Amino acid sequence: MLNGLDRITGGGSGVERAGEGIAFGTHGQRLDVWRPEAEADRPRPVLIFWHGGGWVKGRRQEYGFAGRAYAGRGYVVVVPDYRKVPGVRFPAFVQDGAQAVKWVRDNIARYGGDPDRVALAGHSAGAYTVAMLALDRRWLGAEGVDPGIVKAGVGLSGPYDFYPWTSPRAVEAMKGAADPAMTQPITFARADAPPLLLVTSSDDTVVRPRNAINLAKKLESLGAPVEYRNYRGLSHEEVVMAISKPFRGKASVLDDSVRFLDKAMP
């Protein structure tokens, strides 16, 4: 409904879906590509956006509003899907994320994107993938991708420091992990991490603000480039809703994230 409302209210003005249902990876994954309609004098920066859904639900088709929003600000936007629980457990969804980055490296130029200016963004479980790919070099390395390809990351309402697991969804998603610490983005905080914008909201009862607070503090203590934002009065869902055209007045999530990305990828 949100995606349709965004489209009806003009969220797609000046942008186009340049690719739909494009196959990538080794497990039947698909992705969509959004971009500005206007010609550019040089390749555009690229943003890969992963949706949320607690690792159990969500479809890339429902997040066209995010693709249109960032494409409207000059980005070539890739919205991938990924395998879900209970069909898979950790680390399958992170591996799928790494394969999406590999596809971008190898193919985004044909859509007008710059493979040397790639950033990651996502909401909730999608933000978890952002943090894991940005901080833990193993996943991109396993796909033959230089982890340095990630120039910046935006995590919206993501879980980064949530062990011991208390929510049923986290328990199911991480079930079987040999070392729980290896599932936690905060474990991989490092001084040379790419710039990260960590967003939370005061009324988020799904992924508590402490996740963003703790990771931001850890990165800051190491000297890594990190920004932290807490949007007062917003719920977990409203943070990502604020990217869409009809709910953009709720908070400056889109403006703030674009400002951050533009600075990281001039």
From TrEMBL:
The residues the entry assigns to the signal sequence are none
Which terms does the record give in the GO molecular function aspect? Answer: hydrolase activity
Keyword set, alphabetical order: Hydrolase
Superkingdom of origin: Bacteria
Which Pfam family name is an example for this entry? Answer: BD-FAE
Name all BD-FAE-like domain ranges.
31-219
Q: Which Gene3D superfamilies match?
A: alpha/beta hydrolase
Q: Which InterPro entries match?
A: AB_hydrolase_fold (IPR029058), BD-FAE-like_dom (IPR049492), GDXG_lipolytic_enzyme (IPR050300)
**What name does this protein carry?**
Alpha/beta hydrolase
Record organism: Sphingomonas gilva
